[in-house]
């Protein structure tokens, strides 16, 4: 029988109306047996997430200041959801215990975790599902690192006799018994772990968008949703800052070969985005040649020129040594016969800029050495590029038509992406042109 783990984000559970949508989604398929909720998120753009208010309570309590005003707002939010839904549950005992604990030991992680804990209690009561406390099954070591094997074993054992359960996201406990959270957005990680543990057929991650978009909607109006993306493609796009999923949510499902389906709670009829392994059956895949386009500003290139550089043994090593000894990592390093250009993060370069330049000068005595700031990197990512001739030509034709100067090109050996360096002020136009070239024109 098919089995799905479904995670709902904060905006999907922000008020009673959202709870109703969530319950309708869960009840529409019997296979949606294990549910991982976030804490109530924003109901409107200026609203405050319950998690943020709980952090505030912990801060105030830590400074010995009365936190009851903020805590009362939190209580009102939960009580409002309970009465509006008409569920037969009271959280008064829990509220009192939390307030007492915060006064005695104002631990941030404990405070923040209560957002998911309380929401999980309500959702379990509303659905008639069993509540399984994440503190019993998600286990961290004393340094706060997740113990994945122990956790998977504990979740599997605990759920083996439970047909339907709500397991709150975001937190667990350390081997010493303290409540510990993941970093922000960490309910995604809990969902992924639970999916691995119960060997789910699919991990559905319900949020407020209908999946990953081909590119940033602030740059291109109404961009298409990506139907299918591989984990490797996702990593390339996430590096460029395009993500709606917590980074650590990938490993537990990817290692178990479980796809993630990003879905929209407010538009359950949309299929969303499937995130799959490379061995997925792509025969019915009607995706475009490219999967996504992402860009990031804030890079600099260190340009080095020296006649006969290519025959000088150890040249590259000496240059990289100058970076290494100043604690600077690099992003890309395309080179020519007599030139080498190294792309680095400008903010990381700034504090060691003069030292790096001086050391490169000393190590390799270049004919010419300069730093160019204000560079943006643009990644065109797509598993289909490898087998489609002319993709690179089309990218550069799009840029040439817009008279955009290309400063750097790098195609990874996997042929999964092409990285192009352009001036920061050309980035948005470059993305629009490439979008037009591949997405709009392939539709016509
Ligand atoms: N509630 C937590 C946060 O706001 C975790 C989550 O929503 O995934 O970061």
Report on the architecture of this protein.
The protein has 444 residues and is an alpha/beta fold. The protein folds into two domains: 4-208, Carbamate kinase; 292-443, 2-Layer Sandwich (VC0802-like). 38% of the residues lie in helices and 20% in strands. The protein has 14 helices and 16 strands. It has an eight-stranded mixed β-sheet with strand order 3-5-2-1-8-10-11-9, sandwiched between helices. The chain has a five-stranded antiparallel β-sheet with strand order 13-12-14-16-15. Strands 4-6-7 form a three-stranded mixed β-sheet. Helix 1 crosses helix 3 (68-85) and helix 6 crosses helix 7 (187-197). It is globular, with a radius of gyration of 25 Å. 43% of the residues are buried. The mean pLDDT is 94. Aspartic acid binds next to helix 7.
Q: What can be said about this structure in brief?
A:
This protein is an alpha/beta fold. It contains 14 helices and 16 strands. It has an 8-stranded mixed β-sheet, sandwiched between helices. A 5-stranded antiparallel β-sheet has the order 13-12-14-16-15.
Radius of gyration: 25 Å
Q: How far is the N terminus from the C terminus?
A: 42 Å
CATH architecture of the largest domain: 3-Layer(aba) Sandwich
Largest sheet data: 8 strands, mixed
What is the highest CATH level, the class of the largest domain? Alpha Beta
- Please provide the ordered H/E string of secondary-structure elements: EHEHHHHEEHEEEHEEHHEEEHEHHEHEEH
Please name the CATH topology of the largest domain: Carbamate kinase
Taken together, the total number of domains comes to 2
Class computed from helices, strands and strand pairing: alpha/beta
Task: Give start-end ranges of low-pLDDT stretches.
Answer: none
Please give the share of residues in helix.
25-40%
What is the overall pLDDT average? 94
Bound compounds: aspartic acid
CATH superfamily of the largest domain: Acetylglutamate kinase-like
The total strand number stands at: 16
Count of alpha/pi helices: 14
Shape: globular
Could you tell me the strand content as a percent range?
15-25%
Placed side by side, the strands forming the largest sheet appear as: 3-5-2-1-8-10-11-9
